Amino acid sequence: MTGEPLGEGDWQKEPDTKPERLLSLTLALLSNSVGLSKEELFRSVRGYSLAIEDGVKPDAINKMFERDKQSLRDMGVQVETFIRDSDMDDNTESRYFIPAETFVWPKGTSLTPNQLRLLELAAKVWARASFSAEASRAVMRLKALGMASEGLELAGFAPRILTNEPGILQLEEAARDRLEVTFDYRAPERSVERRVVHPWQVRHVAGQWLLVCWDVERQDVRNFMLKRIVSRIKPTGEQFEAITQAQLEDALERLRLFTLQNTAVVSVVPGTEAWVHFEMDSHAHGGSTTYEFNFMDVHLLAEQLRVFGATVTVHAPSELRDAIRSGLEKVANAHA
């Protein structure tokens, strides 16, 4: 390195990759409700514009575009084509777009916790990718060419996955920023207690969201079920020191061993809502309607299974059967 500034011709082009090109193409096709022509796409999507600059023949670029369209369609993206009335005399002016409504989550869709966690991870990956240099360049080109609104934001296209645990994002941020927090917690068959903790990690284990943390008062690692937090989560204003990887791994190993001690065995009636719930959240097991799985909290599991009524039969443990029966008796007495 000489420290001298590079001239315009000294910059090396970053190689184009198909995933980056497909992401850029998707964002471009989502950005304009009236669609974009091939020419407009070839100018705005970096993969195509680089090919043009490198002297690739138009026929080869067209074939690349057709393959990319098919790749998107194979992944379930609805790439649509139409010709404007003003262009009917020239069928080469086809315009392409992705209807924004096809990126809306279907109404009534229900996901298991494991499926939800996978979608959350995918959403985070999408969010990071949508702010990549490649995607940003594509949108800047579209804006410069007048083919996208100035208010277009890439993050607007990112999927937003919500959970039923309102405190999950706040706890994840507190763990990231090492912020001490406090909340009220109701343990099974106990009164509400105030907890002050150092959040380490939010985990999804055996069907439940929980917080792995350091309990300040008890001076020990604790796991708190998010469903049992009964107040707002508030920062105390204190920041704690970063933990070591060994500390976290030890806490997670203790959690894993605890979970392995709790195993439930249930059978379900085929074709019912309960069957769909377990079938979609389990590994393939030869068509059996009996499921064996680990759990974290027998009372919370009983609440989940109770809604399936007689379509679920609990074989083990007996504590789970008792918890379900007790809950049903309380409901019956309340409506007597």
TrEMBL record:
Domain WYL, first and last residues per copy: 170-230
InterPro entries with a match to the protein in the record: CBASS_pafABC_assoc_protein, WCX_dom, WYL_dom
Domain WCX residues, every copy: 264-331
Pfam families per record: WCX, WYL
Protein name: Unannotated protein
Organism: freshwater metagenome
